[in-house]
Write a structure and sequence with these properties.
Blueprint: E1 2-5, E2 14-15, E3 22-26, E4 35-36, E5 42-43, E6 46-47, E7 89-91, E8 101-103, E9 111-118, H1 131-149, E10 160-166, H2 169-173, E11 178-185, E12 213-217, E13 220-225, E14 231-240, H3 251-270, H4 275-278, E15 282-285, H5 290-294, E16 299-305, E17 317-318, E18 326-327, H6 354-357, H7 394-397, E19 407-411
Antiparallel strand pairs: 1-6, 1-10, 2-3, 3-19, 4-5, 7-8, 7-9, 9-11, 10-11, 12-13, 12-14, 14-16, 15-16, 17-18
Length: 417
């Protein structure tokens, strides 16, 4: 079977650094194995041959091995696929998930199953859908499945994504039409981050502790890195909109509140009101969409970032705002993935080892193609807001390697207080 995780985030923002005031900011999409599709939703696609390993040589067991061999120690071709039942949590070491096995959901895992879906419209002998078709199938079938599994409390812009394990080519040919829908923690590069505990009992807000940095991939946000390395954003904390609003607030109401609150967090974290601006950094934040609010999400991330002079994306930042900071004038080079898409993220404690990798010759999954950039809106606000005609146009953004999101609103770290 092959894996397909889900929806992309469409609300991340970053702003241009400037002396003061509210400025336009970039809203980049999440990349890696997250693929933009229907209405800003997406699907991550990776191979997960749970019951089909190509060109595998099964090692001979010793004649002394008379005791039953644990399932997770069997050669991949001899393993029984884990149950597809809703609530079953899976983990694996290989990027193709061929070694997936069920684990206690209280322990770190990579995938929480929401239940199987049968693709009954594909008759026996039908060709295996291509990646684009499977993306549509995942968004059509698995996002609703995950939403139902979570009792209607699924945040499509949160820290988790809906996805699926799809049939392998061999099992599809043999008549398997099952998608295993489920949930996992998204990654921009395609590396997977472990989840501990069932998602239904967790805060789905996409937030990080103060001082955490997200790397930079060209002009876009990358995976978590140490802040001493080039990065796109540094977290200064988060704001709980539930402390201010009893019902869903409009984007304008969110911005009016978040501007001062995020600026205050930034100043406190940096060590002074003028520190952020003096280091050519600016404050950025997200906005909650109604679907996020209805799922119970209330927390909004506040970050520090800098924008390239041509407003085409994030400028690389080296060093935490608490110390010396260098802001690059040119776009960073594309990030080099540390692990193949679908593999556990570095430092997750679930890395692939040579012995596991030797059990199969299954190919790694392909990276998804770029998605579309949405229309760039005109922004209300202070006099120093960029005009719409000065902002990047959609047709220019489409020429880039990766898609950008909309320009939003933000407060400069030195102003707006």
């Amino acid at each position: 079977m092959n894996q397909l995780p889900g929806t992309t985030r469409a609300s991340r923002r970053a702003e241009k650094a400037a002396p003061s005031g509210r400025l336009g900011q970039l809203r980049p999409r999440h990349f890696g194995v997250i693929i933009g599709v229907l209405l800003g939703a997406g699907a991550m696609l990776m191979v997960a041959t749970l019951n089909d390993v190509a060109d595998t040589q099964v090692p001979m067991l010793s004649t002394l091995a008379s005791a039953p061999v644990p399932e997770n120690q069997r050669p991949l071709t001899q393993r029984t696929p884990p149950p597809a039942a809703a609530g079953t949590c899976l983990t694996w070491k290989r990027p193709d998930a061929a070694d997936a096995n069920a684990v206690d959901c209280a322990k770190p895992h990579l995938f929480e199953q929401a239940g199987p879906v049968q693709l009954a419209s594909y008759a026996p002998g039908a060709a295996l859908p291509d990646n684009n078709q499977f993306r549509d199938l995942v968004n059509k079938h698995c996002t609703p499945q995950v939403t139902n599994y979570l009792g209607g409390k699924y945040d499509p812009d949160g820290a988790f994504r809906s996805g699926a394990l799809k049939p392998s080519a061999k099992s599809w040919k043999e008549g398997d039409r099952t998608l295993r829908c489920g949930i996992q923690r998204f990654s921009r590069s395609g590396a997977l981050y472990p989840i501990t505990g069932k998602v239904a009992g967790q805060d789905q807000a996409d937030i990080r502790p103060p001082g955490a940095c997200l790397g930079i991939d060209g002009r876009f946000i990358g995976d978590p890195v140490d802040c001493s390395l080039p990065h796109a954003v540094e977290s200064v904390g988060w704001v709980d909109l539930g402390e201010k609003f009893s019902k869903y607030p409009s984007v304008k109401d969110q911005d009016d509140y978040l501007q001062a609150q995020c600026a205050k967090l930034a100043s406190n974290f940096a060590g002074g009101d003028n520190v952020v601006g003096s280091k050519k950094l600016s404050v950025m934040w997200d906005n909650l969409i109604p679907e996020s609010w209805n799922a119970g999400t209330r927390k909004v991330a506040c970050n520090l970032a800098a924008q390239l002079a041509d407003r085409s994306g994030f400028a690389p930042i080296t060093g935490s705002v608490k110390g010396p900071v260098q802001v690059g004038a040119n776009a960073a080079p594309p990030a080099q993935a540390q692990v193949p898409p679908g593999a556990p993220a570095p430092g997750s404690g679930q890395a692939v080892n040579a012995e596991d990798d030797a059990d199969s010759a299954a190919p790694p999954p392909a990276l998804p193609p770029p998605g579309e950039a949405p229309e760039l809106p005109k922004l209300p606000g202070a006099e120093d807001l960029p005009k719409k005609e000065d902002l990047p146009k959609k047709e220019d953004l489409d020429k880039l390697k990766d898609p950008l999101g909309e320009l939003g609103k933000a407060a400069d770290g030195a102003g707006g207080r």
